[in-house]
């Protein structure tokens, strides 16, 4: 039984581009196709204007075919671009103290630069 349901928003990796759509792969062996008509409400001339090979994107599930482990997907009505993940930001004990210490210096320097005082 498939864990995917119509309407789900899932993450997928772009594995191929054809003139009719974008092929994606998922970690669990499923594959998907985003037909060119499901990319944008506007005319799509070149799919590489929207995605790149190897890019991770978000997709909306339109249909599920469990026997063939395939999905019909769309990116037309969602914000499909993922923000790159650079790792967890580590908290410090100082918090905003460094900013608080440097802000008056930066203001003084900028004021001098702009001849304000």
How much strand? 25-35%
Q: What would the average pLDDT be, to the nearest integer?
A: 87
Q: Going across the major beta sheet, what is the strand order?
A: 1-2-3-5-4
CATH superfamily of the domain at 9-74: Nucleic acid-binding proteins
Strands, count: 5
CATH topology type of the domain at 9-74? OB fold (Dihydrolipoamide Acetyltransferase, E2P)
Estimated radius of gyration: 23 Å
Put simply, the count of helices is 1
Low-confidence stretches: none
How would you characterize the largest beta sheet?
5 strands, mixed, barrel
- Class by helix and strand content? alpha+beta
Distance between the termini: 71 Å
Q: Which H/E pattern describes the elements? A: EEEEEH
Shape: elongated
CATH class of the domain at 9-74, please? Mainly Beta
Helix content: 10-25%
| Shape-level CATH architecture of the domain at 9-74 | Beta Barrel
């Amino acid at each position: 039984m498939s864990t995917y349901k119509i309407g789900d928003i899932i993450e997928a990796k772009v594995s191929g581009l054809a003139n009719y759509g974008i092929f994606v792969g998922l970690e669990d062996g499923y594959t998907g196709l985003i037909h060119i008509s499901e990319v944008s409400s506007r005319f799509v001339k070149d799919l590489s204007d929207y995605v790149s090979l190897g890019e991770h994107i978000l997709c909306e599930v339109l249909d599920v075919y469990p026997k063939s482990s395939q999905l019909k997907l769309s990116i037309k009505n969602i914000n499909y671009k993922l923000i790159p993940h650079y790792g967890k930001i580590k908290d410090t004990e100082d918090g905003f103290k460094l900013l608080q210490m440097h802000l008056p210096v930066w203001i003084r320097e900028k004021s001098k630069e702009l001849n304000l005082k």
